[in-house]
Write a structure and sequence with these properties.
This protein has about 200 residues and is mainly α. About 60% of the residues lie in helices and about 5% in strands.
């Protein structure tokens, strides 16, 4: 099999494996965030300008509601939770939502932890998710680190969800990106030392 085809096939396999892992992370995140915000602010938290202070967040809520209505689905709280995207759930850890950190911090069962750390990891994973959703290559990404972040974040919220990811992960993630930058030319090149990871 030609190298280009092997790289393409490996990218597809990686993307599929990541998609399942990201799915489990997102489900755990949205359920834990929703539970925490309901406990602190009631079931109407999605429509509170005190809880959600970003225009982006209110736009996400309005779009989710419009999508449900367009599809003839009931606009219930649980349906809204499922419809809101990963970007929305990540945004509640952003700097402008710092007022929510005291409520959201306990959903992560770990020691010393800063909001900015969660926010950065979620931003990185959202970018990865977007690349996968748009069928873009991810071989130049630090995929081992990103997958470890998915496992870590998920485990902090739900050990069972993290175990599911580990059980269903089928890829041996290389420690360094498959595609690297040539330090002389700046061109993207294949790291031949990692050829063992590619399908034959």
């Amino acid at each position: 099999m030609a190298l280009a085809e092997r790289l393409y096939s490996y990218n597809v396999q990686l993307s599929a494996d990541f998609y399942a892992s990201l799915h489990m992370l997102e489900v755990a995140l949205r359920n834990k965030v929703d539970e925490a915000l309901i406990n602190a602010h009631g079931t109407g938290w999605m429509h509170s300008t005190t809880v959600l202070v970003e225009n982006y967040q209110h736009t996400c809520v309005a779009q989710a509601q419009a999508t449900l209505q367009r599809d003839g689905k009931a606009v219930t709280h649980s349906q809204m939770v499922a419809e809101l995207n990963f970007g929305f759930w990540s945004s509640v850890f952003g700097r402008s939502s710092n007022h929510l950190w005291g409520v959201l911090r306990p959903i992560f069962q770990t020691g010393s932890l800063k909001r900015a750390v969660i926010a950065q990891k979620l931003r990185d994973l959202r970018r990865l998710r977007n690349r996968i959703a748009h069928y873009e290559p991810i071989l130049a990404q630090p995929i081992a680190t990103l997958h470890a972040d998915i496992l870590t974040l998920t485990a902090w919220m739900s050990v069972d969800a993290s175990a599911w990811i580990t059980t269903h992960s089928t890829i041996n993630y290389p420690a360094t990106p498959i595609i690297i930058t040539n330090p002389t030319s700046g061109a993207a090149i294949f790291d031949t030392a990692l050829i063992g990871h590619l399908p034959n």
